From TrEMBL:
Gene3D superfamilies the record matches: Vaccinia Virus protein VP39
GO cellular component: tRNA methyltransferase complex
EC number: 2.1.1.33
Descriptive protein name: tRNA (guanine-N(7)-)-methyltransferase
Organism (species): Laceyella tengchongensis
Length: 226
């Protein structure tokens, strides 16, 4: 994702009411508190990791007002664009976190999230970078901690290699595949699908979208240093 660096983006994000920016001092302050920032505290909490420019969240928060939505993004320029899109919707069920997924367990409490979305995560095709993929087992360990017992995770990608790698990692850690398609847009799951920026780009080139919904193992994970 190439974007011109805007030095003011950082300041705007730090001051924005829809954005939480964890620092060394405040990083744990939202753990277990997320529901209380939304008007409807009982609604499920869905979190998109690697939100990018935020098309999915702006659409999803409009189409599904019965869900509280949070986007996590580590790069300030796309995040600022996402926040602007979200702001324009005037939806009250939408927030953003400026952070690296690495720090997920500082930001969310055990079992706080009902669904995680990984949309077109960077595929890191080189084998030596496998540990950076957001479905590498160390990340799955983090998701196991923050997902609710009945929670799940949805992965969409154009990358066959990331998809195959992810299925292996899910299996290795005892995650269960509930729904799967190697051509989402021509599958029964297409009817309720909300597209992302990258998804529109790849599918307009005729590339099939790979989709899987998985649930974590019943036994809750403990922090894993690997
Ligand atoms: C290829 S883009 C996809 C954006 C969007 N999800 C979509 O489908 O259009 C991947 C995004 O994930 C973000 N990202 C990658 N690794 C991340 C991490 N460890 N923590 C937070 N964001 C991350 C990148 O900065 C980038 O904006």
């Amino acid at each position: 994702m190439r974007l011109r660096r805007k030095p003011e983006a950082k300041q705007k994000l730090m001051e924005h009411p829809l954005v939480f920016t964890p620092t060394e001092d405040n990083k744990g302050q939202m753990q277990g508190q997320w529901r209380s920032v939304f008007p409807h505290e009982t609604h499920p909490l869905h979190v998109e990791l690697g939100t990018g420019k935020g098309q999915f969240l702006a659409k999803a928060s409009t189409l599904r007002p019965d869900i509280n939505w949070i986007g996590v993004e580590r790069i300030e320029e796309p995040l600022l664009q996402a926040v602007r899109k979200g702001e324009a919707t005037e939806n009250t069920n939408l927030r953003y976190v400026w952070a690296d997924v690495e720090n997920l367990t500082d930001i969310f409490a055990t079992g706080e999230i009902d669904r995680i979305y990984l949309h077109f995560s960077d595929p890191w095709p080189k084998k030596r970078h496998a540990k950076r993929r957001l479905t590498y087992r160390r990340f799955l360990n983090l998701y196991e901690q923050v997902l609710a017992p009945a929670g799940d995770l949805i992965l969409k990608t154009d990358s066959v290699s990331l998809f195959d790698f992810s299925l292996e990692e899910f299996q290795e850690r005892g995650w269960e595949v509930i729904e799967i398609s190697r051509d989402l847009h021509h599958s029964p799951y297409a009817a309720i699908n909300i597209t992302t920026e990258y998804e529109d780009k790849f599918s307009s080139r005729g590339m099939p979208i790979h989709y899987v919904r998985v649930t974590p193992p019943k036994e809750r994970a403990v922090a894993d240093e690997n």
